[in-house]
Amino acid sequence: MLCCRLVSSIGAFFMITYCSHCLAKNRLPTDKAPDEARCGRCHQPLASHTPLTVTAENIDTLIASDIPVVIDFWASWCGPCMQFAPVFTQMAHELEPKIRFAKLDTEQQQALAARFAIRSIPTLMVFRSGQMLAQRSGSLPPSLFKEWLLELTGA
Ligand SMILES: [Zn+2]
Questions:
Q1: Range of the domain at 139
Q2: DSSP 8-class letter at 46
Q3: Per the domain annotation, does 14 fall within a domain?
Q4: 35 Cα: distance to centroid of ligand 1 (angstroms)
Q5: 153: which of 31, 40, 68, 75 fits an S-S bond (Cβ 3.0–4.6 Å)?
Q6: How far is the C-alpha of 34 from the C-alpha of 48, rounded, in Å?
Q7: What pLDDT band is residue 90 in, cutting at 50, 70 and 90?
Q8: In a domain, 132, yes or no
Q9: Where's the Thioredoxin domain (predicted)?
Q10: What does the pLDDT look like over 21-38, one tens digit per residue?
Q11: Would 21 be classed as within a structural domain?
């Protein structure tokens, strides 16, 4: 039997991000591709490549992630939001887990829409380590959306 395995090597750097499946916070070594990461709690792949649904319960876990999280504030009655939805889903598929993706239904989560002072939709906000990095209103084509995200996050 192996004795005394080191929990972490000294000098290694870690990022905290959430599991798409059980939302457990996971520590990822920065030198390891997060694509291969599995959740320490539920053992599923850490990133699901589809946008997560934001709720009052999970919002603080999501925005605390050290890997940037982009949130799409939307509503089902908003035409531009519905047009933008497939673009957002496509980018999640392409860019998770370098960037994490989540959607906030402003009708279901009116208190959260108020907390983030959402005045028009769609609005996109990017968070990292609990801080807002950027926000913009209006939908945008896939190429510009991707460019904006990569520039912003350095991913
Ligand atoms: Zn998990």
A1: 47-153
A2: S
A3: no
A4: 14
A5: 68
A6: 12
A7: very high
A8: yes
A9: 27-154
A10: 999 999 988 777 777 889
A11: no
Q: What does the radius of gyration of the chain's CA atoms come to, in whole angstroms?
A: 17
Q: For residue 148, is it within any domain? A: yes
CA distance 62 to 19: 9
**How far, in Å, is the centroid of ligand 1 from the Cα of 82?**
29
Instruction: Give the pair of three-digit tokens for residue 131.
Output: 């801080």
Output DSSP code: residue 62.
H
Look up 19 and say whether it is catalytic: no
How far is CA 111 from each of CA 114, 115, 117, 118, 127, rounded to the nearest angstrom? 5, 6, 10, 10, 18
Which distant-in-sequence residues (6+ apart) come within 8 Å of 47 by Cβ?
A: 20, 34, 35, 37, 96, 97, 100
User: What's the total number of domains in the chain?
Assistant: 1
State the distance from the centre of ligand 1 to the C-alpha of 138, rounded, in angstroms: 33
Read off the CATH number of the domain in which 70 is found.
3.40.30.10
Is the model's pLDDT at 7 over the cut of 90?
no
